[in-house]
Write a structure and sequence with these properties.
- The protein is α/β, with parallel strands linked by helices.
- The protein contains twelve helices and eight strands.
- Helix 1 runs parallel beside helix 2, helix 1 runs parallel beside helix 12 and helix 7 crosses helix 9.
- The radius of gyration is 17 Å and the shape is globular.
- The termini are close together.
- The chain binds 2-phosphoglycolic acid (PGA).
- 2-phosphoglycolic acid (PGA) binds next to strand 8.
């Protein structure tokens, strides 16, 4: 069975104390035996959360970003090597907020992906269409281009060490989730597109998470879809009670499989 994941992307929220408390609470209340829970805190708390998250099986740490450059004179940047040394296991690449607000185009994302693999980090590569593409019925083509331009040049080994998240932009932070069949349609499409280039067994083994207003009421139905292997959760991952319920939804879905 493919790896199942519930990931919390804190974005630019919380502080050191609240972030540590949140992590402790979530870890005390949940037992992800056969799946993985990943915390993506802001850079300044990564080391603190690393010390907490390594204390129980099933919990991992990820960074929200890495530089496209190696170490050197790049004031304010954080390199993949630094992140790997914390240690962090994952890094987000291609989140729509980075694409939109920081002009990260396919060229930049490809450089970041390569830096991640070079330093043994697993990239969680995000893709997803804006509302205009969905309304124009061009959403499948839009996402398949994102997949092709960022993932088709990878080696099979690199793809094997990759997690994908489908996050429709119109669903991020809006409270407007893709319904389970919309999520399933896109996740299956992503797998089909990857199979144009990579071995079917390899593609079958890649986890594809759904992101965009996941909460405790919609998580079970989304996680039950055959090609949805978990969630990348933003807002709801900042509320311990909500995130705990979302993790519990994954436990229930896996128990009933
Ligand atoms: P959201 O964010 O759950 O707040 O919609 C998801 C994300 O951007 O990863």
């Amino acid at each position: 069975m493919r790896k199942k994941i519930v990931a919390g992307n804190w974005k630019m929220n919380t502080d050191k104390l609240k972030g540590s408390l949140l992590t402790h609470t979530v870890m005390e209340e949940t037992n992800p035996g056969n799946f993985e829970v990943i915390f993506f805190p802001p850079f300044p708390f990564l080391s603190d959360i690393a010390l907490i998250s390594c204390q129980k099986q099933g919990f991992s740490l990820g960074a929200q970003n890495i530089s496209e450059f190696d170490n050197g004179a790049f004031t304010g940047e954080v390199s993949a090597e630094m992140i790997a040394s914390i240690p962090c296991k994952y890094v987000l690449v291609g989140h729509s907020e980075r694409r939109m607000y920081f002009n990260e185009n396919a060229d930049v994302l490809n450089k970041k992906l390569l830096k991640a693999y070079q330093h043994g980090l697993i990239p969680l590569f995000c893709c997803g269409e804006p509302i205009s593409e969905r309304e124009n019925d061009n959403y499948l083509d839009f996402v398949s281009i994102q997949i092709k331009e960022s993932l088709f040049d990878l080696t099979a080994d690199q793809l094997k060490n990759t997690v994908i998240a489908y996050e429709p932009i119109w669903a991020i932070g809006t409270g407007k989730t893709a319904n389970p069949s919309q999520a399933q349609e896109m996740h299956a499409l992503i797998r089909n597109v990857l199979e144009e280039k990579f071995d079917q067994n390899l593609v079958e083994s890649i986890p594809i998470l759904y992101g965009g207003s996941v909460n405790s009421s919609n998580a079970s139905e989304l996680f039950s879809q055959p090609d949805v292997d978990g969630g990348l959760v933003g807002g709801a991952s900042l509320k311990a009670e909500e995130f705990i319920k979302i993790i519990a939804s994954m436990e229930t879905v896996l128990r009933n499989k």
